[in-house]
Design brief:
The protein has 409 residues and is an alpha/beta fold. It is built from 13 helices and 16 strands. The protein has two domains: 87 residues, Urease, subunit C, domain 1 (Roll); 301 residues, Metal-dependent hydrolases (TIM Barrel, Alpha-Beta Barrel).
Amino acid sequence: MALDLVLRNARILDADVLLDIGIADGRIQAIGADLAGDGDALDLDGCMVSPGLIETHIHLDKSRILERCSAAPDRGTDHMARVAAVKSGFTVEDIHSRAKATLEGCIAHGTTHIRTHVEVDPNVGLRGFEALQQLADEYRWAVDMEICVFAQEGWTGLPEADANVVEALRRGASVVGGAPGYDVDHAWQINRIFELAREFDVDVDIHLDVGPTTGDMDIHLVSDLTQQYGWGGRVAVGHGTKYSCLPPDRLRDLGARLSDVGVAVTVLPATDLFIMGRHQDHSVMRGVADAHALMQCGVNCTLASNNILNPFTPFGDGSLTRMANLYANVVQRGTAAELAECFAMITQRAARLIRRDDYGIAVGKPADIAVWDTRDPAEAVATVARPLFAFKAGRRTFTATRPVLHKPG
């Protein structure tokens, strides 16, 4: 087959020598030395290649709203109230504009797949869902986006919230989620989520177990329902700050259970670190779950951005290597193997969470590729590396330039 593009002298994981990657029809068609090709060629000069990064948990719809609702002063805890107060003023156009800016930041940091959560509470309706469906279609050239629909501010006894979730699923949302911690009846909401997952045959991704206590965790019900519904491998929970408070033996027990039933955990280091421990005035807890300890038990874990530039997280630029580096600092994981596992949590492990079998640097896989000026994944995490460019289905989506020092003389 004629090749449209050859990436020459690429550093591929587990390969001892630099190799070429041949691309045609949007897929990797060949990997080897000195590939022949009449199409375009790009010399990577030993740069590392990886599959495109995967953002498994982000809120595009409520990003970039700090000018409307600033972060709580004096370590306040009214993050959700501040967001809820402005949601009624969101329009489809407004959400689209803010989400677009955040999405482009993610793309420019090497992301080629995104799972975004979108709120459909009565005070915002389906406006966010409509905006993100439009955005997903417009940016299909750079990123595959799936939408997880949920009610953030409570679901029990709110027929309009339920109707909005159902309508979004009818319109094509591929994941159903929730935030039972903000509901008057945690168990009712969790059961409803699984009922809808079965009815619409969609995956589950729930904001779960945020807080500093461990005697009231909802993960046990989620695990039971995952097993009961046969939904193993299709369920993820985000945050899990309470797991950071468990002693090692209880964390191992939890890890064994999650591994057994097939529930994945997404750690959201920027948000979890920012909102946790606000009840303490000294020796403040970190509140970031140690995914490495869970992975040692067989649990699939990922790292993600969650909120960007809003009261829950007044920071962020869409960089998943920044999230991986922050997480590694907080949970004190610094060996080369541990840092490489952090990179896996934003690539291969993330692909497993969103159930993408067509992922990776291998013949036959889509040519969704990020190129890094690093030797290996551990270095990419340690240095908060930014990719030089990325490809979606073999088409370059962005280019970053190396900084140039202008030395005197």
